[in-house]
Amino acid sequence: MSDIPIYNADADRSLGLFDNPAWRAKSLEKAGLALVALAVVATVVALASDLGRQRPGLFAWLVFGGFGVGGVVFALGGLRRASGVRNDGKMFSSNQARGAVGWISGLVLTGLYVVLYFAPEALAGLIPLGDPLSRLLRDQPATVANGGQWFLYSTFYTLAVGAMGVRALVRYRHSRYHVVRTLSVVFFQTILAFALPYLLMRLQQPELFLHYTWPLDYDLFFPWKMEELRASGQLGVAMLIWGAILIAVVTPILTFYFGKRWYCSWVCGCGGLAETAGDPYRHLSDTSLGAWKVERWMVHGVLAAIVVGTAVLWVAALLDVGWLDAVAGTFSWLYGLIIGSIFAGVVGVGFYPLMGSRVWCRFGCPMAAVLGLQQRFFSRFRITTNGGQCISCGNCSAYCEMGIDVRWYAQRGQNIVRASCVGCGICSTVCPRGVLKLENGPRGDRATAAPLGAPALISELSILDGAMD
Amino acid sequence: MHIAIVGNGITGVTASRVVRRRHPDWRITVISDEAPTHYARTAWMYVYMGHLTREHTQPYAEHFWTDNRIERVHDRVTHLDARGKTLRLQKGGPLAWDRLLLATGSIPAFYGWPGQDLAGIQGLYHLQDLDRMEREAGSAKRAVVVGGGLIGVEMAEMLRTRGTHVSFLIREGRYMAHAMPKRESRLLEHEIARHHVDLHLRTEPVTFQGKDRVQSVRTSTDVTLMADWVGIATGVRPNIDWLKDAGIDTARGILVDRQMRTSAPDVFAAGDCAEAREPLAGRAAIEPLWYTGRIQGATAGMGLAGSPTPYAPGVFFNSAKFFDIEWQVVGRIAPEPSPEIVDAYTEDETPHGPRLIRLQADTASGALLGVHALGIRLRQSVISDWIARGVSLDDALRDLPLASFDPEFSRAILVPDLSRQSQRIANLG
Domain named FAD/NAD(P)-binding: which ranges (chain B) (predicted)? Predict the structure, then answer.
């Protein structure tokens, strides 16, 4: 009876043939999301009522525990999915492809940042939740008066880097480069950006961020700030000296040998958040030529502003001219507002679900601009392409968080030497043909084209690399 | 001078770039009925899987075409008049040209199975095939994929990401039997099974059954498999049916000499649709690969530009990804053991999949012939150079770490140990 199907659904199930690897992960992920949802509810309750103030301990557990544990459980769900590149369904996702969920997330995140920077009193119900941890770490309560909102923010930020760091570790566990890099950013965020500064505060010392310096830490060399640090004792002076060494000596040397990635995707806290919490949104960065033009003007514009501005502040401080003081004061205030608060904070993270995870790093960060100039002109770093193996699929360009059109170079067999590349290495990971490799090597011809696999035609094929594009 | 190019795939577009570079003022028109612009068809699997959007699979942004003044015409060529040097277009009028390139690619090959025209049965080559697959396969519970080449395994992977159950029919007794040794086949078969694909070796379809739409597939092993959707990946054939009356010599494909010239003056053909009158040693007359399409396109571009150049693709290479295992070959690897070939091979198993590397050399001369890798990235330029220079197997093994293209912090590349007889014996059988 040839027309009677032998199909037997039960047999298929017992063989696991219906078992979709993508489905198996879902139960743990749902449990994690449930905890996160609980934390969201607790957050809203604390914001809207007095309950957080009355029971700070309980609510701290509900909110921080919910976000942290829920995030980690969610992340661990990924272990039940086979390791490898798993971007399935990303372009259909409401959250990750600028759908309704993405827009709402973007608006809520942006709104939270606006409140945090410009109306912290609205967070009054939430700030006491930081109290237990604040007393433990920095030996003082958490109130708006002593920057309790920033303590709260740091805690959330570190939790996000930690929990989403676990997600990144799980997601990229097949690549040792990503494992090492992710551990590095989680370490720098939890220890150098969170625990250490607050412990120092406990010891009546100035806040110390060993891994930040001017121009990212934009007021470090402002006259009044230097005065304040000098006055605070030996540690303050040491911080100033370390800050100067970091930008003038450490940065150029490490960037020469490894590219700007040593900082942007291994150390920096902004990069740390982008590589962990921002990873689901990395493909939303605009790859167009227009975006690149805007990026170059903006990021170098911000760098010019902080360099000139810092110089003006010093001239004003030394000359003691009234109108110059006013200019300097206005500059300092404006830069802090527009760049320090709105750009680095509100837009930088708030726009993750809309413009990708590196909006600040790409368009605004003056440190990235300094590192980028060094990388472009004085570094041994490049992304090498593997002969003629590119199939122009576009995964590299799509998943570049800096919006670099990686394929543009790869399909011509040309190495990638770009100021903005933060060396996250995802292009290499998502490439289905093994075309891209992050390398440090002799500078000589690092940007030139490699043969496309046909010796007799090399000279003619290399015409594909010419200026006509 | 007006250059017309029929086909906007990798071959036609590469040719257009070569012409533009050499002649900034010539007029270049690229005509395609498939899509208004150039797509990387190799990437369409990622669109179905949700990794990419269609826009992502366009290798060049709009400004590229205007900057380079390459005119794109989205129309179907219905007739070629080689002597009168004109093309007739379905929507537009006649188009006169001075030199012409035919780069019309392939169409999926069907083999006359009863029921093959039922709805829900298709190949995957053109953009329209992707549209159709999204429409018709997206809701399929059970699918059958016929043919184990690269498109077949891509289809299986695509379907699995949407939870479709896949039965995968392979004619040969082992997977990729024509291209790789037995051990590699076994590792890939395991990988396919690991992703819950129901693999049927030594199995071909006999009939496709259903009323309007396919419902089941009867196989040569006398089994009937339920299927809401069937993917045909039994190879491709040159897309030349429309050229029947054009007066150009064809066989399976458009016959070309080494300069990619057809039998008609000023008419070139390249890529999947071209067939070499005298194939180069060790190469097929028709090479339907992305990489060869690009090199042939560049070669034809030289001819179009007035500097005919012989097709010289250099040392063979190819690569693919079978679910999570990357595969790469540089040079030639014999799939079956032979006394003329020395084989050095080793493998290991990592928590994230197997790794394998195989080198083959000529027994008589000792010269390296090819390198094969699964789960390891090879630096193509290094190995091509070794093979072109005929370095010895011993030297290649010694220098193998130089050929690693794996990311930083990866495990060290595997190096076969020739002194260990168990690895030296031709590990093919």
Answer: 1-279
